[in-house]
Amino acid sequence: MRSGLPRGLRGPQGVVTVLGAFALLLVIVLAPYVWGDAATATSVADRVQGPSAAHPFGTDDLGRDVLARVLIAARLSVLLALGATAVAVSGGIVLGVVATVLPCPLRRLVSAFIDILLSFPWLLLALFFSVIWGATASGAMLAVGFAGVPSIARLTYTLASSVTGRDFVRAARIVGVGPAGVILRHVIPNIAPPMLVNTAAYASTALLSFAGLSFLGLGVQAPGFDWGRLLREGIARIYVNPMAALGPGIAIVLTGLILNAIGSLTGESASKTPLRPRASKARARAGAGDPEVLVEVEDLRVSFPDRQGRLVERVRGVSLTIRPGETVGIVGASGSGKSVTAMAVAGLLGPEAAIDATRLSFQGIDMTAAPRAADRRRLGLELAVVFQDPLTSLNPSLTVGRQLTEVSRTHDGVPRAAARHRARDVLASVGIARPERRARQYPHELSGGMRQRAMIGMGLMGRPRLVIADEPTTALDVTVQRQVLRVLRDARRRTGSAILFISHDIALVSGFCDRVLVMKDGQIVEEVAAARLDEARHPYTRALVACVPHMGTDRTRPLPVIDESGGVAEEARA
Ligand SMILES: Nc1ncnc2c1ncn2[C@@H]1O[C@H](COP(=O)(O)OP(=O)(O)OP(=O)(O)O)[C@@H](O)[C@H]1O
Where do the ABC transporter domain residues begin and end (predicted)? Predict the structure, then answer.
């Protein structure tokens, strides 16, 4: 059963939070009208009295009702805390997000600057800013706000960096989405839930900080009063009337709790699904070159730095070609360099990869260099990548339909309504029932097989000449695997696109592909037609083929094992 309320607002905690927030709001709005006179009317006869029915929190040294003053101070205290929070959060988000999209050396510089600011205790910063802006309410608000910028900036930077490292952001960049688009469409929606929680947490910290500054005489000045100032006045009479000090203290604690509870509920409601790695798809650009050859790779070498910073070559002199409409498979053990090779072809390797190749091109476009704007458009439309993990192949904070329409809208300039229409047709063409409804859903609302089909659909939104499928069926059960392979086959038939299919499973690859490239230790050790795998010459290929059980396999014998040298060892395995 689903109620119409957001998820976070259901249950007792949600109800209590809503009631608390509502009561606080009422006090903030109405208190000055209802208790204004009691809070300001002086009465010498009622001076410094303890709690009574007429004055539940007693009176101050001018005979004013302390409870009324506490209630009226709610408005100033909360507004100043929210003002300080707005300064801290907006400053922190701008600094943190901008730092993530800066080029590497500048990013390090800004990150180090944030760290230096963080090393100062916030109170010291707040006092420093108070001195600059003076001991006034607005000065203290700016002081508390600016003192919070470094911690919010650090948090934003960490969260945003974890998003910008995801495949869907890398793919979006390749597709031509600029820094502003990446921030607005990918980073902000994904960091919003934790940021909301932290904003509310910071609001309660700001409330406390502000009360602290006013208590020290650096915040609100007489005749104005906030909770901090009331606390300062109450402390002086704590032995005569403890409630004069406890009253504002209770108000600060309760309001802090309400702000924290609002934050956790908002965060819970806003979070759609946990963000996980791996995502999306990519595309490629245009140029001269042999029209008969779609992908040309010659002597590709890819290295990554190890922990000591030394470059280690992971792909060692790979050469391959893919012709239009061909289905080429790459098989090999884990770590043999299949994905790195494929990502190099797609131009999706990160900046940490050192790429060296005599030739690395897709439709004549040099994929070792950053694509030009004109090439990006072709990449966006003509190259699609389907990754292994379907849950994380899509941006969790955008609906499936929105992600599908991005290609048409970014590169074809198709109007929104037409793009939506096309997205529905494409979803239907990859076998997704009720495509209208599915397009409105978020990735986590789809099954694994559906997500993978939606990914293939994303590729079909353009005019794919090549689909790179990096272990697209590994995370799926056998039945769903078959459906996904069928969708890929149909897509190839309809669009004439070539497919580069990566898998551990030589039986799957030989059944699906025209040609098979066998990789071992970063090299292609053999290239063989799928139909003639039995005639493979390399011992490693023969070992892979021998490991595939078939109808005639003797089940009483141990499974063959591929040894270090790549041959078959008849070791026993349970
Ligand atoms: N970003 C990276 N930084 C450092 N090393 C990397 C990086 N990406 C890949 N590698 C290394 O490159 C080698 C080849 O990785 P790759 O992902 O291509 O293997 P694979 O054959 O696709 O394996 P699997 O089937 O397990 O995905 C591995 O040793 C891997 O650790």
Answer: 295-546
Count of the separate structural domains present in the chain? 3
Q: Which of 236, 255, 270 is the last residue of a domain?
A: 270
- Best substitution site from 312, 339, 518 to test ligand 1's pocket, by max atoms within 8 Å of Cβ? 339
Is cis: bond before 435, omega within 30 of 0?
no
Distance 203 CA to ligand 1 centre (A): 44
Q: State which residues form the domain around 551.
A: 539-574
> What ipTM was predicted for this assembly?
0.96
Cβ proximity of 451 and 392 under 8 Å: no
Q: Whose CA is closest to atom 19 on ligand 1?
A: 335
Does any domain span residue 28?
yes
- pLDDT tens, N- to C-terminus, the chain (574 residues): 344 455 555 677 788 888 999 999 999 999 888 887 777 877 777 777 778 888 888 888 788 888 989 999 999 999 999 999 999 999 999 888 888 877 767 888 888 888 888 887 777 777 787 778 777 888 888 888 888 898 899 888 888 887 776 667 766 665 666 777 778 877 888 888 778 888 888 898 889 888 888 888 888 887 888 899 899 888 888 888 888 889 999 999 999 999 888 877 765 555 443 333 333 333 333 344 455 789 999 999 999 988 777 889 999 999 999 999 999 999 988 889 999 999 999 888 877 888 999 999 998 888 888 777 778 778 878 888 888 776 766 888 888 998 888 877 776 777 888 888 888 988 988 888 899 999 999 988 988 888 888 888 887 888 889 999 988 887 677 777 888 888 888 888 888 899 999 988 888 888 889 999 999 999 999 998 988 888 877 888 877 877 766 656 666 666 666 665 655 555 444 3
Rounded to whole angstroms, the Cα distance separating 513 from 500 reads 9
Cα of 384 vs its chain's centroid, Å: 21
- Say which CATH number the domain at 422 has: 3.40.50.300
Instruction: Kindly report the pTM of this predicted structure.
Output: 0.59
18 with 125, same domain? yes
Question: What is the bridge-based pairing of β-strands 561-562 and 383-386?
Answer: unpaired
* Residue 558 located in a structural domain: yes
What is the DSSP pairing of strand 498-503 with strand 466-470?
parallel
